[in-house]
Specification:
This protein has helices at 2-13, 15-20, 43-46, 72-162, 166-178, 235-260, 297-300, 310-316, and strands spanning 189-195, 200-207, 216-222, 227-232, 268-275, 277-278, 285-286, 289-296, 320-321. Strands 1-2-5-8-9 form a 5-stranded mixed β-sheet. Strands 3-4 form a two-stranded antiparallel sheet. The protein has a two-stranded antiparallel sheet with strand order 6-7. The chain is built from 8 helices and 9 strands. 48% of the residues lie in helices and 15% in strands. The protein is an alpha+beta fold and 339 residues long. The protein starts with a helix and ends in an 18-residue tail after the last strand.
Length: 339
Protein backbone atom coordinates (compact mmCIF):
# COMPACT_ATOMS: atom_id res chain seq x y z
CA UNK A 1 0.00 0.00 0.00
CA UNK A 2 2.88 2.36 0.76
CA UNK A 3 4.53 1.50 -2.54
CA UNK A 4 1.34 2.31 -4.44
CA UNK A 5 0.91 5.53 -2.44
CA UNK A 6 4.49 6.57 -3.25
CA UNK A 7 4.01 5.76 -6.94
CA UNK A 8 0.83 7.86 -7.12
CA UNK A 9 2.54 10.77 -5.40
CA UNK A 10 5.47 10.62 -7.82
CA UNK A 11 3.14 10.54 -10.82
CA UNK A 12 1.07 13.50 -9.61
CA UNK A 13 4.18 15.52 -8.73
CA UNK A 14 5.71 14.98 -12.19
CA UNK A 15 2.79 15.73 -14.51
CA UNK A 16 4.78 18.33 -16.43
CA UNK A 17 8.12 16.54 -16.33
CA UNK A 18 6.53 13.37 -17.75
CA UNK A 19 5.53 15.02 -21.01
CA UNK A 20 8.92 16.67 -21.51
CA UNK A 21 10.47 13.21 -21.87
CA UNK A 22 8.54 12.47 -25.08
CA UNK A 23 8.12 14.18 -28.44
CA UNK A 24 4.44 15.07 -28.84
CA UNK A 25 4.71 15.36 -32.62
CA UNK A 26 2.33 13.06 -34.48
CA UNK A 27 3.32 11.89 -37.94
CA UNK A 28 -0.05 11.37 -39.57
CA UNK A 29 1.52 9.54 -42.50
CA UNK A 30 2.82 6.99 -40.02
CA UNK A 31 -0.77 6.25 -38.99
CA UNK A 32 -1.53 4.68 -42.37
CA UNK A 33 -2.69 1.13 -41.88
CA UNK A 34 -1.66 -1.94 -43.82
CA UNK A 35 -3.12 -5.39 -43.57
CA UNK A 36 -0.88 -8.42 -43.77
CA UNK A 37 -2.50 -11.70 -44.62
CA UNK A 38 -2.21 -13.99 -41.63
CA UNK A 39 -1.70 -17.64 -42.58
CA UNK A 40 -4.54 -19.97 -41.74
CA UNK A 41 -3.22 -22.10 -38.94
CA UNK A 42 -5.70 -24.63 -37.70
CA UNK A 43 -3.86 -27.97 -37.60
CA UNK A 44 -6.75 -29.36 -35.59
CA UNK A 45 -8.91 -28.94 -38.72
CA UNK A 46 -6.43 -29.33 -41.58
CA UNK A 47 -5.10 -32.64 -40.30
CA UNK A 48 -7.30 -35.59 -41.36
CA UNK A 49 -8.75 -37.74 -38.66
CA UNK A 50 -6.55 -40.82 -38.40
CA UNK A 51 -8.34 -44.03 -39.46
CA UNK A 52 -9.29 -46.45 -36.71
CA UNK A 53 -6.72 -49.09 -35.84
CA UNK A 54 -7.48 -52.61 -37.09
CA UNK A 55 -9.03 -54.84 -34.45
CA UNK A 56 -7.27 -58.13 -33.71
CA UNK A 57 -8.86 -61.30 -35.05
CA UNK A 58 -10.09 -63.81 -32.47
CA UNK A 59 -8.03 -66.98 -32.42
CA UNK A 60 -9.71 -69.74 -34.42
CA UNK A 61 -10.26 -72.94 -32.37
CA UNK A 62 -8.48 -76.10 -33.50
CA UNK A 63 -9.95 -79.55 -33.01
CA UNK A 64 -7.60 -81.89 -31.18
CA UNK A 65 -8.78 -85.50 -31.22
CA UNK A 66 -8.35 -87.52 -28.00
CA UNK A 67 -5.56 -90.04 -28.22
CA UNK A 68 -6.85 -93.53 -29.06
CA UNK A 69 -6.20 -96.29 -26.44
CA UNK A 70 -3.65 -98.97 -27.19
CA UNK A 71 -2.67 -102.34 -25.75
CA UNK A 72 -4.67 -103.72 -22.84
CA UNK A 73 -6.51 -100.42 -22.38
CA UNK A 74 -8.19 -101.01 -25.72
CA UNK A 75 -9.38 -104.45 -24.60
CA UNK A 76 -10.87 -103.43 -21.24
CA UNK A 77 -13.40 -100.74 -22.20
CA UNK A 78 -10.89 -98.30 -23.55
CA UNK A 79 -12.58 -98.01 -26.90
CA UNK A 80 -15.84 -97.06 -25.27
CA UNK A 81 -14.24 -94.39 -23.13
CA UNK A 82 -12.37 -93.14 -26.16
CA UNK A 83 -15.60 -92.82 -28.10
CA UNK A 84 -17.09 -90.79 -25.24
CA UNK A 85 -13.99 -88.56 -25.15
CA UNK A 86 -14.23 -88.01 -28.90
CA UNK A 87 -17.87 -87.05 -28.58
CA UNK A 88 -17.08 -84.62 -25.77
CA UNK A 89 -14.15 -83.16 -27.71
CA UNK A 90 -16.25 -82.65 -30.81
CA UNK A 91 -18.97 -80.99 -28.71
CA UNK A 92 -16.44 -78.66 -27.09
CA UNK A 93 -14.94 -77.86 -30.48
CA UNK A 94 -18.36 -77.06 -31.92
CA UNK A 95 -19.05 -74.75 -28.94
CA UNK A 96 -15.69 -73.06 -29.44
CA UNK A 97 -16.43 -72.67 -33.16
CA UNK A 98 -19.77 -71.09 -32.29
CA UNK A 99 -18.15 -68.62 -29.89
CA UNK A 100 -15.43 -67.86 -32.45
CA UNK A 101 -18.00 -67.11 -35.14
CA UNK A 102 -19.78 -64.78 -32.69
CA UNK A 103 -16.47 -63.06 -31.96
CA UNK A 104 -15.85 -62.68 -35.69
CA UNK A 105 -19.27 -61.15 -36.16
CA UNK A 106 -18.73 -58.81 -33.20
CA UNK A 107 -15.36 -57.78 -34.60
CA UNK A 108 -16.86 -57.07 -38.00
CA UNK A 109 -19.65 -55.01 -36.39
CA UNK A 110 -17.14 -53.06 -34.27
CA UNK A 111 -15.03 -52.32 -37.34
CA UNK A 112 -18.08 -51.18 -39.24
CA UNK A 113 -19.07 -48.82 -36.41
CA UNK A 114 -15.50 -47.49 -36.17
CA UNK A 115 -15.41 -46.86 -39.92
CA UNK A 116 -18.79 -45.11 -39.78
CA UNK A 117 -17.63 -42.95 -36.88
CA UNK A 118 -14.40 -42.14 -38.73
CA UNK A 119 -16.28 -41.12 -41.87
CA UNK A 120 -18.63 -38.92 -39.80
CA UNK A 121 -15.73 -37.28 -37.97
CA UNK A 122 -14.09 -36.55 -41.31
CA UNK A 123 -17.32 -35.05 -42.64
CA UNK A 124 -17.60 -32.89 -39.51
CA UNK A 125 -13.93 -31.88 -39.76
CA UNK A 126 -14.21 -30.87 -43.39
CA UNK A 127 -17.39 -28.88 -42.67
CA UNK A 128 -15.71 -27.10 -39.74
CA UNK A 129 -12.61 -26.49 -41.88
CA UNK A 130 -14.64 -24.82 -44.61
CA UNK A 131 -16.44 -22.67 -42.04
CA UNK A 132 -13.17 -21.66 -40.36
CA UNK A 133 -11.55 -20.84 -43.71
CA UNK A 134 -14.54 -18.72 -44.71
CA UNK A 135 -14.43 -16.91 -41.36
CA UNK A 136 -10.68 -16.36 -41.70
CA UNK A 137 -11.12 -14.92 -45.16
CA UNK A 138 -14.04 -12.74 -44.05
CA UNK A 139 -11.98 -11.33 -41.15
CA UNK A 140 -9.13 -10.51 -43.50
CA UNK A 141 -11.47 -8.77 -45.94
CA UNK A 142 -13.05 -6.80 -43.07
CA UNK A 143 -9.63 -5.72 -41.77
CA UNK A 144 -8.64 -4.68 -45.27
CA UNK A 145 -11.88 -2.74 -45.74
CA UNK A 146 -11.45 -1.00 -42.36
CA UNK A 147 -7.81 -0.17 -43.14
CA UNK A 148 -8.76 1.24 -46.54
CA UNK A 149 -11.52 3.34 -44.96
CA UNK A 150 -9.11 4.62 -42.30
CA UNK A 151 -6.46 5.45 -44.87
CA UNK A 152 -8.95 7.32 -47.05
CA UNK A 153 -10.04 9.39 -44.04
CA UNK A 154 -6.41 9.98 -43.12
CA UNK A 155 -5.53 11.17 -46.62
CA UNK A 156 -8.54 13.48 -46.58
CA UNK A 157 -7.45 14.81 -43.19
CA UNK A 158 -3.86 15.46 -44.32
CA UNK A 159 -5.04 17.27 -47.46
CA UNK A 160 -7.44 19.39 -45.42
CA UNK A 161 -4.65 20.22 -42.96
CA UNK A 162 -2.55 21.51 -45.84
CA UNK A 163 -5.45 23.83 -46.65
CA UNK A 164 -5.71 24.68 -42.92
CA UNK A 165 -9.39 23.79 -42.77
CA UNK A 166 -10.77 24.27 -39.27
CA UNK A 167 -12.43 20.85 -39.03
CA UNK A 168 -9.18 19.13 -39.95
CA UNK A 169 -7.23 21.13 -37.38
CA UNK A 170 -9.77 20.15 -34.73
CA UNK A 171 -9.55 16.48 -35.68
CA UNK A 172 -5.75 16.65 -35.61
CA UNK A 173 -5.80 18.29 -32.20
CA UNK A 174 -8.18 15.62 -30.99
CA UNK A 175 -5.55 13.03 -31.92
CA UNK A 176 -2.88 15.05 -30.13
CA UNK A 177 -4.87 15.45 -26.92
CA UNK A 178 -5.99 11.83 -26.92
CA UNK A 179 -2.30 10.91 -27.00
CA UNK A 180 -1.72 12.87 -23.80
CA UNK A 181 -1.61 10.02 -21.31
CA UNK A 182 -2.15 10.96 -17.68
CA UNK A 183 -1.78 8.63 -14.67
CA UNK A 184 -4.76 6.51 -13.70
CA UNK A 185 -4.79 8.29 -10.36
CA UNK A 186 -5.11 11.67 -12.11
CA UNK A 187 -7.44 11.40 -15.14
CA UNK A 188 -7.81 14.47 -17.34
CA UNK A 189 -10.35 15.31 -20.04
CA UNK A 190 -10.22 17.92 -22.80
CA UNK A 191 -12.89 19.97 -24.53
CA UNK A 192 -11.80 22.28 -27.32
CA UNK A 193 -12.65 24.23 -30.42
CA UNK A 194 -10.54 25.88 -33.12
CA UNK A 195 -11.19 29.26 -34.72
CA UNK A 196 -9.76 29.12 -38.22
CA UNK A 197 -10.01 32.88 -38.65
CA UNK A 198 -7.86 33.80 -35.67
CA UNK A 199 -5.93 30.50 -35.55
CA UNK A 200 -6.80 30.28 -31.86
CA UNK A 201 -7.48 27.10 -29.93
CA UNK A 202 -10.00 27.36 -27.11
CA UNK A 203 -9.10 24.56 -24.72
CA UNK A 204 -10.87 23.49 -21.55
CA UNK A 205 -9.04 20.98 -19.35
CA UNK A 206 -10.93 19.25 -16.54
CA UNK A 207 -8.89 17.66 -13.77
CA UNK A 208 -9.82 15.50 -10.76
CA UNK A 209 -11.46 16.98 -7.68
CA UNK A 210 -9.05 17.52 -4.76
CA UNK A 211 -10.85 14.82 -2.79
CA UNK A 212 -9.95 12.30 -5.51
CA UNK A 213 -6.26 12.59 -4.73
CA UNK A 214 -4.64 10.46 -2.00
CA UNK A 215 -5.05 12.00 1.46
CA UNK A 216 -2.70 9.56 3.20
CA UNK A 217 0.99 10.07 3.88
CA UNK A 218 1.83 6.47 4.85
CA UNK A 219 0.24 3.27 6.10
CA UNK A 220 1.48 1.29 9.09
CA UNK A 221 0.56 -2.00 10.68
CA UNK A 222 -0.57 -1.99 14.33
CA UNK A 223 0.16 -5.37 15.83
CA UNK A 224 -1.93 -4.87 18.98
CA UNK A 225 -5.12 -4.40 16.97
CA UNK A 226 -4.05 -6.39 13.92
CA UNK A 227 -5.02 -3.48 11.69
CA UNK A 228 -3.58 -1.07 9.15
CA UNK A 229 -3.69 2.58 10.11
CA UNK A 230 -3.22 5.51 7.75
CA UNK A 231 -1.16 8.55 8.65
CA UNK A 232 -2.87 11.54 7.00
CA UNK A 233 -1.07 13.92 4.72
CA UNK A 234 -0.95 17.40 6.18
CA UNK A 235 -3.46 19.91 4.88
CA UNK A 236 -0.62 22.11 3.63
CA UNK A 237 0.98 19.24 1.73
CA UNK A 238 -2.35 18.40 0.09
CA UNK A 239 -2.92 22.03 -0.89
CA UNK A 240 0.61 22.39 -2.27
CA UNK A 241 0.39 19.15 -4.28
CA UNK A 242 -2.95 20.08 -5.81
CA UNK A 243 -1.84 23.63 -6.65
CA UNK A 244 1.30 22.25 -8.34
CA UNK A 245 -0.76 19.72 -10.30
CA UNK A 246 -3.13 22.46 -11.50
CA UNK A 247 -0.21 24.59 -12.74
CA UNK A 248 1.57 21.58 -14.27
CA UNK A 249 -1.53 20.57 -16.24
CA UNK A 250 -1.99 24.09 -17.61
CA UNK A 251 1.60 24.42 -18.85
CA UNK A 252 1.67 20.81 -20.05
CA UNK A 253 -1.48 21.26 -22.14
CA UNK A 254 -0.08 24.32 -23.94
CA UNK A 255 3.28 22.62 -24.48
CA UNK A 256 1.75 19.45 -25.97
CA UNK A 257 -0.33 21.40 -28.48
CA UNK A 258 2.46 23.70 -29.62
CA UNK A 259 5.09 20.94 -29.77
CA UNK A 260 2.88 18.58 -31.78
CA UNK A 261 1.81 21.30 -34.22
CA UNK A 262 4.90 21.64 -36.42
CA UNK A 263 2.84 23.18 -39.20
CA UNK A 264 2.04 26.04 -36.80
CA UNK A 265 -1.66 25.73 -37.42
CA UNK A 266 -2.40 27.04 -33.92
CA UNK A 267 -1.00 30.49 -33.17
CA UNK A 268 -2.66 31.23 -29.84
CA UNK A 269 -4.25 29.16 -27.10
CA UNK A 270 -7.03 30.31 -24.81
CA UNK A 271 -7.02 27.81 -21.95
CA UNK A 272 -8.99 27.12 -18.80
CA UNK A 273 -8.37 24.45 -16.18
CA UNK A 274 -11.32 23.47 -14.01
CA UNK A 275 -12.71 20.65 -11.93
CA UNK A 276 -16.19 19.49 -11.05
CA UNK A 277 -17.54 19.35 -7.53
CA UNK A 278 -20.56 20.06 -5.36
CA UNK A 279 -20.93 23.55 -3.97
CA UNK A 280 -21.47 23.08 -0.22
CA UNK A 281 -23.54 26.25 -0.13
CA UNK A 282 -26.03 25.30 -2.86
CA UNK A 283 -25.61 21.54 -3.27
CA UNK A 284 -25.30 22.06 -7.01
CA UNK A 285 -22.57 20.68 -9.23
CA UNK A 286 -20.17 23.43 -10.18
CA UNK A 287 -17.02 23.63 -12.27
CA UNK A 288 -14.85 26.36 -10.76
CA UNK A 289 -12.16 27.66 -13.11
CA UNK A 290 -8.75 27.34 -11.44
CA UNK A 291 -6.57 28.69 -14.28
CA UNK A 292 -7.23 31.08 -17.15
CA UNK A 293 -4.50 31.62 -19.70
CA UNK A 294 -4.12 33.17 -23.13
CA UNK A 295 -0.74 32.67 -24.76
CA UNK A 296 0.80 32.81 -28.21
CA UNK A 297 3.73 30.91 -29.66
CA UNK A 298 6.08 33.85 -29.52
CA UNK A 299 5.66 34.05 -25.75
CA UNK A 300 5.69 30.33 -25.07
CA UNK A 301 8.33 28.86 -27.39
CA UNK A 302 11.36 30.48 -25.70
CA UNK A 303 10.52 28.92 -22.32
CA UNK A 304 12.85 26.19 -21.04
CA UNK A 305 10.23 24.03 -19.38
CA UNK A 306 12.79 21.58 -18.01
CA UNK A 307 13.94 24.28 -15.57
CA UNK A 308 10.75 26.10 -14.65
CA UNK A 309 8.19 25.96 -11.88
CA UNK A 310 4.81 25.85 -13.58
CA UNK A 311 3.22 28.23 -11.09
CA UNK A 312 5.92 30.83 -11.76
CA UNK A 313 5.52 30.30 -15.52
CA UNK A 314 1.80 31.00 -15.25
CA UNK A 315 2.57 34.21 -13.40
CA UNK A 316 5.14 35.10 -16.06
CA UNK A 317 2.50 34.55 -18.75
CA UNK A 318 0.03 36.74 -16.81
CA UNK A 319 -2.41 33.90 -16.29
CA UNK A 320 -5.31 34.10 -13.90
CA UNK A 321 -4.76 31.52 -11.17
CA UNK A 322 -6.94 30.51 -8.23
CA UNK A 323 -5.58 31.70 -4.89
CA UNK A 324 -6.60 28.38 -3.34
CA UNK A 325 -7.28 25.62 -5.90
CA UNK A 326 -7.63 22.95 -3.21
CA UNK A 327 -10.63 24.77 -1.77
CA UNK A 328 -12.00 25.32 -5.30
CA UNK A 329 -11.68 29.08 -5.10
CA UNK A 330 -12.31 30.23 -8.68
CA UNK A 331 -10.16 32.65 -10.60
CA UNK A 332 -11.20 36.22 -9.94
CA UNK A 333 -8.74 37.89 -12.31
CA UNK A 334 -9.53 36.91 -15.89
CA UNK A 335 -6.63 38.80 -17.41
CA UNK A 336 -5.22 35.54 -18.78
CA UNK A 337 -8.06 34.86 -21.23
CA UNK A 338 -9.64 37.17 -23.73
CA UNK A 339 -13.38 37.53 -23.44
Amino acid sequence: MNAELSSQADQIDSLLAATLEVDDFIDLAGLRQSVVSVPFERPDLTTPVPPPAALPFPQQPVYVAPEAPTGLAASFGGRKRHAQEVTAARHAFEQAQHVWRQQLAAREEAERRAQDEHRQREVDRERALRAAQEEHEAMFLERRRAALETNVKLERLMMALQDREAWAVEEFLGIVLSNSVYPECFPVTHDFGFDGGSHELRLRVTIPHPSDLPAEKTFRYVKSTDSIVASPLSQKARKDRYAKAVADVAIRSVHEVFESDRERLVQTISLTVDTEGVDPATGHVVAPVLVELAVDRASFDPLDLANVEASATLQHLRAGVSKNPHELVPVVNSRGVRG
